[in-house]
Amino acid sequence: MGGGGHRQQLGSGESGTCAKYTWEEVQKHNHRGDQWLVIERKVYNVSEWTKRHPGGRRVLGHYAGEDATDAFTAFHPDQRFVRKFLKPLLLGELAPSEPSQDHGKNAALMEDFRTLRQNLEAQGLFRTSPLFFILYLGHILLLEGLSLALLWTFGNGWINTIVICLTLAVSQAQAGWLQHDFGHLSVFKSSTWDHLLHKFVIGHLKGASANWWNHRHFQHHAKPNVVTKDPDINMLKILVLGNVLPVEYGIKKLKHMPYNYQHQYFFLVGPPLLIPLYFNMHILQTMVMQRDWVDFAWYLSYYTRFLTCYVPYYGVIGSLVLLIVVRFLESHWFVWVTQMNHIPMDIDYEKHDDWLTMQLKATCNIEHSSFNDWFSGHLNFQIEHHLFPTMPRHSYSHAAPQVRELCEKYGITYQVKGLWESWCDIVRSLKKSGDMWLDAYLHK
């Protein structure tokens, strides 16, 4: 079962014979350094490719030993280009007696979901409106310019500084949603342009790292709310989420924090600190450790621009304080929007669900309105975004009714909430998980 032997079989496969595998054989190769996966019944050895994969090593590992067809389709808009990299990794294919789906998944549901995707593509919902993104980027740059115009015109008084902080916070939050679009390759036909604009927006406009974001965020999309696979639910032992982890912690008598009060201290350690403290430290650490000097240069360009613009008015210390306040405001916005769709949902270990079921368990939508769409960067359509991450966001509202119809056909819950209700559910969920931890800690 060595890699060289399989490459030999692949060569002979091209002349008429092809190695055949059972799911049992494929599923044995699900360990670091030995990872196979299946795409459209073809079996690939990705053990070495994980080191070069643009989405990061771990996202491939999350599908080791599994069928990755729907994930592959979801993440790669230009599949003809990507398949060039798959050819050298091909081992063979599933035996004719083996089903296309693994772990007893519903074949009819999976087929209907793939048909839905084809229908949405035929309707043009994966085609971008250039004007939408031009105007979106324009309003971000306008806000950046407005903050400087206010400073030049009215000076650095307290009232004007507060207005500038609010203006920059709005600009930063909206730039965060825009970099998300470029990061998902949902804007340009050529992924090269998406990658370039992604580095510009997240690096030069926000002072962060595109590669750091990619490697973290794609894991979240690949296995949302799956314990040990989704980094977004790794709360560094500060919070315990869902119904499973709290009980595990309680039984093991783990008390890193008083988790029964996490719905209260969340307001102190979550929204205010995620971006200013944790993300900033992790971004810098990742770039240095991985020697990602390209992203580091973009990162420095943001701070150079910011300090050049504001130091003449506030001094070095005052400019850094201004930046921290902006990050503080942006962090509140970011946390409440990004967590309202996920924390109250199902959080559990790997269940090997099909793509549709897995995403619907972990995500919910927030009511559609012009304000909600703008405020959340269209992440109020989290279901559609997770099912079709390369779909441009202005198409979500058109896809939603068709997704909902498919969910109703198979009895899958398609949940839509109000904005305030979704925020309250975050707190309710934290309290419920904390109570479960306390009960297990005291009585099990």
UniProtKB/TrEMBL annotation:
<feature type="transmembrane region" description="Helical">
    <location>
        <begin position="131"/>
        <end position="152"/>
    </location>
</feature>
<dbReference type="GO" id="GO:0016020">
    <property type="term" value="C:membrane"/>
</dbReference>
<comment type="similarity">
    <text>Belongs to the fatty acid desaturase type 1 family.</text>
</comment>
<dbReference type="GO" id="GO:0006633">
    <property type="term" value="P:fatty acid biosynthetic process"/>
</dbReference>
<keyword id="KW-0275">Fatty acid biosynthesis</keyword>
<dbReference type="InterPro" id="IPR012171">
    <property type="entry name" value="Fatty_acid_desaturase"/>
</dbReference>
<dbReference type="InterPro" id="IPR036400">
    <property type="entry name" value="Cyt_B5-like_heme/steroid_sf"/>
</dbReference>
<feature type="transmembrane region" description="Helical">
    <location>
        <begin position="158"/>
        <end position="178"/>
    </location>
</feature>
<feature type="domain" description="Cytochrome b5 heme-binding">
    <location>
        <begin position="18"/>
        <end position="95"/>
    </location>
</feature>
<dbReference type="GO" id="GO:0012505">
    <property type="term" value="C:endomembrane system"/>
</dbReference>
<dbReference type="Pfam" id="PF00173">
    <property type="entry name" value="Cyt-b5"/>
</dbReference>
<keyword id="KW-0472">Membrane</keyword>
<keyword id="KW-1133">Transmembrane helix</keyword>
<dbReference type="Pfam" id="PF00487">
    <property type="entry name" value="FA_desaturase"/>
</dbReference>
<keyword id="KW-0560">Oxidoreductase</keyword>
<keyword id="KW-0443">Lipid metabolism</keyword>
<dbReference type="InterPro" id="IPR005804">
    <property type="entry name" value="FA_desaturase_dom"/>
</dbReference>
<feature type="transmembrane region" description="Helical">
    <location>
        <begin position="303"/>
        <end position="326"/>
    </location>
</feature>
<dbReference type="InterPro" id="IPR001199">
    <property type="entry name" value="Cyt_B5-like_heme/steroid-bd"/>
</dbReference>
<feature type="transmembrane region" description="Helical">
    <location>
        <begin position="265"/>
        <end position="283"/>
    </location>
</feature>
<keyword id="KW-0249">Electron transport</keyword>
<dbReference type="GO" id="GO:0016717">
    <property type="term" value="F:oxidoreductase activity, acting on paired donors, with oxidation of a pair of donors resulting in the reduction of molecular oxygen to two molecules of water"/>
</dbReference>
<keyword id="KW-0276">Fatty acid metabolism</keyword>
<keyword id="KW-0813">Transport</keyword>
<keyword id="KW-0444">Lipid biosynthesis</keyword>
<comment type="pathway">
    <text>Lipid metabolism; polyunsaturated fatty acid biosynthesis.</text>
</comment>
<keyword id="KW-0812">Transmembrane</keyword>
<protein>
    <recommendedName>
        <fullName>Cytochrome b5 heme-binding domain-containing protein</fullName>
    </recommendedName>
</protein>
